[in-house]
Amino acid sequence: MINHERDKNEVNMKEYIKKLYKDSKETYFKEMDLWLGSGNKKIIVTVNPETLMLSEKNNNLKKLMDSKCASLVPDGIAVVKASKWVKSPVLERITGIEVSEELLMLANKNKHSLYLLGAKEEVVSSLANKIKVEYPSIKLLGYTNGYVKDLDKEMNKISKLKPDILLVALGIPMQEELIYRHMNEFNKGIIVGVGGSFDVLSGTKKRAPKIFIKLNLEWLYRIIKEPSRLKRFWNSNVKFIFKVRKEK
Ligand code: UDP
Question: pLDDT tens digit string along 129-154?
Fold first, then answer.
C-alpha cells in the first residue's frame, strides 16, 4: 500500500475510536429508550478490534460507521484501552449481548415491536419462544434464521413490517454489510448487529462466567471454549493492539 493511503486508513481507525460512546452503559441505555420513543432511526454498531481492522478494507462497513444515524459503542476491553491511548477515553465496554438484553427489556416495558434475523433455525426459534414467555408485551413480528438463501430479500420484507427494533445476528462483517445495504429502507427504529448474541440469549451457549466478565477476560473464556477462535483473535485483537500502540 502506498504511504499516503496507509496514513489515511490509520487516521480513520483513530477517528472511529474517538467517535465511540464515552459515557456509562446506564446512560446509554436511557438514550436507547429515548430513541425508541422518538420514532427516529438509529443503527448501533458494537465496535471491537475486528470491526476496526476490517473497516480499513471494507467500504460498506466504513460507510455504515460514517452514517449520520450510526451510534458506535465500545465492545471489548482492547477498544476501551485503545481509547485511552488515543486520549479519548471511554468509560466502559458495552457489548452486543448487553444491548440486546436491554432492548428486550425496553421493548417489553413499552410494548415495542421486534424482529429477529440471524443464527441457526433452532437457535432463533428457541429465542423467539423464550421472548414470548419472558417478555410477553413485546410485539414479536417474526424471525428468520441467518442461513436462508436470500438475506437481502429478507431484509426488504422486514423493512416493510417497520419494526421498532431489529436485531441482526450474522457476525461481523456480514451483519453490518447487510444493514448498510438496506438502511435506507427503514425510516424508524433501532437496528443493531449483535454477532453471536442469539446463541447466548437463547440459552444455546453460555456467556462467560461473571468473574471472567469482571476481570475483562471474556475473550479468554471464548478462546478456551472454542480454540478455533484463536486465529481470529490474533488477526484482530493482537494486531490491533500492536497497531494502535505503534501509532499512538
Ligand atoms: N451466522 C448466521 N449466518 C451465517 C453465518 C453465521 O446466522 O451465514 C450466525 C451464527 O449462527 C452465529 C452468529 O452468526 O449465531 C455469529 O456468531 P459469532 O460468535 O461468530 O459472532 P461474534 O459475536 O464473535 O461476532
Answer: 999 999 999 999 999 999 999 999 99
- CA-based nearest residue to 61, from 5, 112, 12: 12
C-alpha to C-alpha distances, 11 to 19, 30, 44, 78, 248, nearest whole angstrom: 12, 31, 22, 18, 11
In total, the chain counts a number of residues equal to 248
CB of 165 shorter than 6 A to ligand 1: no
The pLDDT, as a whole number, for residue 39 is 87
Q: Which atom of ligand 1 is nearest to the CA of 194?
A: 23
| CA 22, 26, 32, 38 torsion-angle sign | negative
Candidate of 53, 152, 170 to mutate for ligand 1, largest count of ligand atoms within 8 Å of Cβ: 170
Ligand 1 centre and the CA of 4: distance in Å? Answer: 35
Confidence of residue 206 (pLDDT cuts 50, 70, 90): confident
- C-alpha span between 40 and 230 (Å, rounded): 39
Q: How far apart are CA 6 and CA 99, in angstroms?
A: 33
